[in-house]
Amino acid sequence: MTIYSVDFLPHSPPFTPQLNPTSHSLHTSIVTCRNPNPNPNDGYSSKNSPKVGVSAETRPTHLLSHDFRDTHLMKLFNRSCKAGKFNESLYFLECLVNKGYRPGVILCTKLIKGFSNFKNIEKAVRVMEILEEYGDPDVIAYNALISGFCKANRIENAGQVLDRMKGRGFLPDIVTYNIMIGSLCGRRKLGLALKLLDQLLEEDNCMPTVITYTILIEAAIVEGGINEAMKLLEQMLARGLLPDMYTYNAIIRGMCREGMVERASDLLRSLSSKGCKPDLVSYNILLRGFLNQGKWDLGEKLVTEMFSRGWEPNKVTYSILINSLCRFGRIDEAISVLKVMVEKGLTPDAYSYDPLISSLSKEGRLDLAIGIMDYMLSNDCLPDIVNYSTILSALCKVGNPNQALEIFHKLAEMGCPPNVSSYNSMISALWSCGNRSMALSLVPEMVSKGIDPDEITYNSLISCFCRDGLMEEAIELLDDMEESGFRPSVISYNIIVLGFCKMHRIDDAIELFAEMVETGCRPNETTYILLIEGIGFAGWRMEAMELANTLFYGDVISQDSVNRLKKTFPMLDVYTELSHSETE
Asked: Mapped to the 3 state alphabet, what secondary structure does 118-139 carry?
């Protein structure tokens, strides 16, 4: 089946470009795709401004010559294509081919790539139709179209283009397959990517490259783990392909993510014998792995080794150190590292500042956190909305909601206008510090500014109402949520179920549970645990234990949940044994 339409797109020009007057005519000539009619009886009047048609007919000598017009049209096509005005380029291309000109594959390929980058795949297909009918496409042009379909997540169409190019006698090259394999891997479809690898080997006799295997190795680490990746590495070596540092860095990163830092360290130190020299990226990956596990001594040795190998720590290295120190509560040391970083002539970025602002805010050291944000601004590093939200939440927490609200309303002036996420954070923070009216006032404010509440907004407000025991208001908000086009999720229902259970309104919790099921929202394990605990804490421990037992044997709740319930209700073991004996 072909993905190409039989007919061309309509040839209606989107505009009528004007040419400058020439010495051959006192009139302005207009370029149009219409066939000129030389017969005066058919409506052509010499009294009107002459319209120059793009055709091969001989025109009166007082008009532009055919060659000049065609050359000018070609120039318009080339200029618009080079300027990235792809819609204009397609129009001029249509005009040219209607005159019998053969389109060049290079500019057509650029058009295909341009339309693909702007997610206008239909026009990219149109260019390929023109190229196939009037010109000579090549593998590069087909690769551009395949890439466009892959970017648009239309893998099946990309496969159809692959089949079509084969049918027209073009053998796909390794670039073709790398595009498709990369797209499949990016969408977590490693199995299909591996089948495509077999296809390129068996059907098309096309040899994979280091890039091909590196793409597959990275995907294998994500989907199958490091052992699957190592199998691909062995296969790669067996084919005589020598991995580069990009390949090895992907494996080192995968090992560190799985906690195999010693194994990653051994691999890094063996690279010299494999003909590869570890680079700064390699050391940064391993440094992060060591520090994530709190292995500061090994991290220090690694930095010393970096220096001995001639590698100076870069911005990423310092950011890793700052982030790790903050995560382990060593904020003052992190600030010292930031100072060293600046002294070395390196410019910190958001990745360097973010962990410091977050950690200082959590510790209540707001003056220093705000000082760091001021330093960021003075060094042309603009704080993002996450930085501001962190500070604002901390201000609310320490009892300064008015200051927080004042800063919040100035965010737009600071070049960081609040979005729905920042409104959600502010609403929750204000409510948590007891400023319910301030929190609620932000809802109509965000709507008036054209920022629509999202599911998180509703869930945050529902949670706030439930925390204060305002259950009827929470239920009303649940109904309003549905009317606004947001289907309440299991999280929404769980929040209210918890609220009812805390107030020992078990009947209402069970009624809401039934409504949840009726609306097609499937309860999760948390829902059942909340009900069990609510029933138990309301005084019906025997009923709670019976329900827990039934759900456990029905594979609805896990063994971990049962173990936690045993600690909550110590008599659970007795009732479980009694219930089990009754079933025998």
From this structure: CCCHHHHHHHHHHHHHHCCCCH
